[in-house]
Amino acid sequence: MKIFVLNGPNLNMLGIREPDVYGKGTYEELCAEIRAYAEAQGIELEIYQSNYEGELVEIIHKAYYGKADGIVINPAAYTHTSIALLDAVKSVNIPTVEVHISDVSAREAFRQQSYIRAACVATVAGKGFDGYIEAMQILENKAKE
Ligand code: DQA
């Protein structure tokens, strides 16, 4: 099974950025956790982070051409603004799970809207870095169906 993990803007700043909201773990530590789980499960993994909307769109296309079986995406602030990312996920028809480190449902009103959610098989929010592992498990279970 092949999974693409995508992280949107400012997630490269994990550990530095608002640790009270996102925790003290760094982006490198997040990647290491995801890689360790994937390796244990025999999942082929590609991890990306970009601060640019168009680049995230292109990585979603890359998942299609690279024959990914699933996508885990934390679109970060683009969750709340990007129809381009919604359309990209719809274009590739690959099971996709939306992840948020924080519990967006308990935050500001502008974080209540998620455009990408309409194209996702599930949303995991408020579980910290573990949410990425849960998202991969959801995709593994989907693949077995
Ligand atoms: C986030 C939540 C978003 O509202 C925010 O813009 C982020 C991170 C999260 O992981 O909790 O950058 O997606």
Describe this structure in words.
With 145 residues, this protein is of the alpha/beta class. The protein has one domain (2-144): 3-Layer(aba) Sandwich (Rossmann fold), CATH 3.40.50. The chain contains 5 helices and 5 strands, in the order βααβαβαββα. It has helices at residues 19-22, 27-41, 53-65, 83-92, 130-144; strands spanning 2-7, 44-49, 70-74, 96-100, 122-125. It has a 5-stranded parallel sheet, with helices on both faces. α3 (53-65) packs parallel to α4. The model has no long low-confidence stretch (mean pLDDT 98). The protein binds 1,3,4-trihydroxy-5-OXO-cyclohexanecarboxylic acid.
Numbering strands along the chain, what is their spatial order in the largest sheet? 2-1-3-4-5
> What's the architecture, going by CATH?
3-Layer(aba) Sandwich
CATH-derived topology = Rossmann fold
Describe the biggest sheet? Answer: 5 strands, parallel
Shape: globular
Flag low-confidence runs. Answer: none
CATH class: Alpha Beta
The number of helical runs is 5
Radius of gyration: 14 Å
Strand content: 15-25%
What is the succession of H and E elements?
EHHEHEHEEH
Structural class: alpha/beta
Domains, number: 1
Distance between the termini: 13 Å
Ligand identities: 1,3,4-trihydroxy-5-OXO-cyclohexanecarboxylic acid
CATH superfamily caption:
Dehydroquinase, class II
Give the total of beta strands: 5
Helix content: 25-40%
- Average predicted local confidence, pLDDT: 98
